[in-house]
Amino acid sequence: MAPSTPTRSKGSAGALARGLGMMSLESPLADVPTNIRSRLTASPVSLGTKGLRAGAPGVSARRDKEDLLPGVPGDTDVRGVVAKDWDGPDINLTRRRNSAMVSRGDRYIPNRDLLRTGGTTPFLEDSAGDTLSRRSSSETTASSSDSHAAAAADLESAPALEGVCQVDLGQRILSFSAAPPSASHAKDLRVRYAPKPKSTLPSSLLAAGRRRIPTAPERVLDAPAIVPDFYANLLHWSSQNMIAIALQSAVYAWNSETGETQMLMDLDEESERVGGGGLVTSLQWDAHGNILAIGTDRGYTQIWDAARGARLRTLRPSAEGGADATAANVAAWAVDGTLSLGYASGLIREHDVRQRASETRSLEHAHAAQVCGLSWREDSALLASGGNDNVVKVWDRRTHVPKMRKENHRAAVKALAWSPHNSSLLATGGGSADRCIHFWNTTQNTRVQTIQTGAQITSLQWAPHYREIVSAHGVSQAENGTGALCIWAHPSGQKVADVPGAHDGRILHSSLSPDGQTLATVGSDESLKFWRLFEQTNDSAKAAQQRGVLSGYRGLTRTAPARSLR
């Protein structure tokens, strides 16, 4: 027998009433709130039903307002009218500000006192102020109490965390000003505002009284036929304890550990294709002390590997003869391997000798006269240059425009030295018509100090273990024809010591040993001398070890007779 299809009795209002009273989950009224559902189920009248009869059983002849939809007049036909499912109870929807909504402290920052004591207002609420949870108010209250009780129990163990982190959980983390310290923390205040300890670098004036500054050289070597040219740079001490010196067309390397001397190259024996037949005008070791750049008076620059005694490559001037076809007076290596060359024409050119096309930057007309001084800062970011136009310039390697330009000197600027204690400090020395040492703050482009030396300044060397700088001099105001060495304290500018007759002639060049204790000088009297001016004390040795200064000046013996480099 086929299943029967349930049918609705058209005239049975009681069945409709029973159906409304026994709603199933699929009934559309299941989602209607209880207050509205009670109104609808109180009368067994189908709203908007076309076959409604006033005399039907259980239906009142009078139409009460319970029989109508909210907001629909009693005499209006509701057929075709679409009404909202539910507009909510007719109550004031304005959110009531209860006593639990108190200030929680600073804006966006919860009050930790409330966390300790617990709060009654939930953090998530809907627009009517009811909690988003579907649980009853009693369950919500009990759950809230349980959660706050659990939070309070967790906070009982917070003092241990406070002690470990040394943080007060009730302290405000953001405020316009810090709370003033109490008088009970006087000891802490003394520690907080006490002056910082002085640098481990000893004071030059105090250290000068405790150390012996010799007035006689430790060792003397002959340097015959050295070119007495103020604009050339013919002496340099490498980080591998090798001294390179140019005697006219030949370059000699002297090992200060073993005392052995070898001739590295001679332009008279080189072909013209690589710059042979001229004079050496400049030389400079790279930062690692293995590669030597040798400049000539014809604009050629040879790159040599001293350990193997082999020429690696030659940087040639332009074939048509331009600004780079003049003497390469000075060379300077950056720590990153950049080689800068200064020419007599005023040109400064930079090379990366590891590349086939080595030229990386060309500063045309960097100086109006020949360039005689170049020095890279330790971080390879700034290059200082000095020329015969009496101008000092500082170049940022990223631009072709000088970062700083100063015209305070009244003579050629050959002596340039970056301070090892302050990367922004540059010292420059002028020629015979100037005789001044200027100190520049290259960050602010200002002159911070000037020392009047009274003699031509041919080179400057900073002491890495003392706050001192040593100047080598040529022609002096006394016109006695002798070169002097002077040690100056910084920043006071006072003279610590001097060696008035360091050479019989003027000092042409100077270079500092890799351990920073001994100064090598060569003069027009054709002698190479070594001076132990900055012997380390215990304090200075510790400072040098912290700074990572190289050591290894062990080959020079005291007061040895002069011997020839050839």
From TrEMBL:
Domain of life: Eukaryota
Domain CDC20/Fizzy WD40: 221-531
WD repeats: 280-314, 364-396, 500-533
InterPro entries assigned to the protein according to its UniProt record, in alphabetical order: Cdc20/Fizzy (IPR033010), Quinoprotein_ADH-like_sf (IPR011047), WD40/YVTN_repeat-like_dom_sf (IPR015943), WD40_CDC20-Fz (IPR056150), WD40_rpt (IPR001680)
Entry keyword set: Cell cycle, Cell division, Mitosis, Repeat, WD repeat
UniProt-listed GO biological process terms: anaphase-promoting complex-dependent catabolic process; cell division; positive regulation of anaphase-promoting complex-dependent catabolic process
Region of interest (Disordered), ranges: 48-76, 110-151
Transmembrane segments: none
SUPFAM superfamilies: Quinoprotein alcohol dehydrogenase-like
Gene3D superfamilies to which the protein is assigned, alphabetical: YVTN repeat-like/Quinoprotein amine dehydrogenase
GO molecular function: anaphase-promoting complex binding; ubiquitin ligase activator activity
Skewed-composition ranges (Low complexity): 138-151
A GO CC annotation given for this chain: anaphase-promoting complex
Family the UniProt entry places it in: Belongs to the WD repeat CDC20/Fizzy family.
UniProt xrefs under PANTHER family: CELL DIVISION CYCLE 20 CDC20 FIZZY -RELATED, FI02843P
Name of the protein described by the UniProt record: WD repeat-containing protein slp1
Organism, as annotated: Malassezia equina
